Amino acid sequence: MFRKSIEQMAPYTPGEQPRPGQRLIKLNTNENPYPPSPRVKAAIVKAAGPLLRLYPPPRADELVNAAARLYGIPREMILAGNGSDELLAMLFRAVLARGDKVAYALPTYSLYDTLAAIQEARVAAVPLGPGFAQPLAALLAERAALTIVCNPNSPCGSLAMPSELEDLARGLDGRLLAIDEAYVDFAECHALPLVKRYPNVIVLRSFSKSFSLAGMRVGLCFAQPPVIEQLLKVKDSYNLSRLAISAGAAALADIGWMRHNVDRIKRIRAMSEKRLRQMGFEVPPSQANFMLARIPGHDMAAVAAGLRRRGILVRHFPQSVFYDSLRISIGTPAQMDALFKALEPLIRPVLATRANGATGKDERPSRARTIRRAAAILRPQSQQVPPRPVPGQ
Ligand SMILES: Cc1ncc(COP(=O)(O)O)c(C=O)c1O
Predict the structure, then answer these.
(1) Domains of the chain with CATH codes
(2) What pLDDT digit, counting tens, does each position of 69-83 carry?
(3) Ligand 1 mean position to 107 CA, how many Å?
């Protein structure tokens, strides 16, 4: 009944969401532990009136105008989405026909794999560089129709500098470069000015992380008008609800609230990285609202499951090169304390085995699976076997 490629593809599986009433500490999907600005609630209540009988403005004018004022970008260069996931979906739909090439780092945000599979696009998955650096030169060499740089990258939190991204944009010579800045408010710099200088650059932002609005579904796309015009053709007519438009505009109007929360989260991130390192983890410096805690070569599945039994959700990516890592979202100080308390006894035996010179069991098979998967992604579409489901972000 369906296209063969759809029947064969693995579905995107989002991170676990607790059932109503279930008390779990949620450090698995990089949400913000602090609530959104009170102005957001007031705006939603106001929007939930008689006007709900009318369709919302198709271009989400109130939100786009607020973004234009705040970021100093003309409104013709801004497109609002139902979360940045919708904007990514529009981008893949508008750019990639069957067999066209899309390039991105491996590992990165796994939704890109799903969107590529829907389009039957060819994926050039480029391994991260030393220290998990963004592999920009290798991405450039792919000369793909669409190159995506998740910056900071998930799940490792590494950041490419705007000057490096500018070199990539220039080198791609008219081919599209999308910079997914879902986490950039937690980073030391961003690449938004590039959209004014390069007609092939697209910057995507999410309100789900720094603005604490994951439940509202709001994202923004910045690009030059000819790019926006093409994306508009594949957009749902009324893609944001009236509530989402008002909520997003109110969040932008109270930018101080967001910055205050981001500052708190960055401070907790610094303390948590230090504490994890003291416990014996390797923690690459993160520019996002999550950290990667690694014990190189040791499969962390059992540790993630142990935390789950103790009521704490973190992310483990069993089929990735990061099978030996936990991705931990930054929570409140109390949530992080609970995490460290639960983690300590789970990790002690692992570190003791390593100190005795043993490496533990069942480590290489996961890695072998990972390499097989990377190879499968790189095979031409015609030879591909359907990948096993990969949990999403
Ligand atoms: C890198 C990246 N891009 C985009 C998104 C999607 O964000 P949104 O909630 O705005 O759809 C996520 C969500 O986790 C993400 O990790």
Answers:
(1) 4-8+21-34+256-370 (3.90.1150.10), 38-254 (3.40.640.10)
(2) 999 999 999 999 999
(3) 15
